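Many introductory courses stop at the sequence. We go one step further.
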Amino acid sequence: MKVGPQSYRGIEFVCVDELPSSQQILLNASSDYPERIKILINSKTKANCILYRDYEQWFYAVYKRSVAPSESLTRQQLENLPVKLAFDKA
């Protein structure tokens, strides 16, 4: 399931730590795609965030093509998916 964006001062983003676990596993398989950002909100830093437009692109190019057709995959199966899926581009 694709999540909606959070917004702060016109910046739309998602925090990886708040995504469904299957998405977190695929995203954490690669630490640099999509690029992670930090956002300072009311003197508190939200780390491990992704711009929403980059998340949407990743969601359709990687997640939907690799995991979503088989939502019944176990956590172990997801963890064993090839890392190259995180770099697969449409």
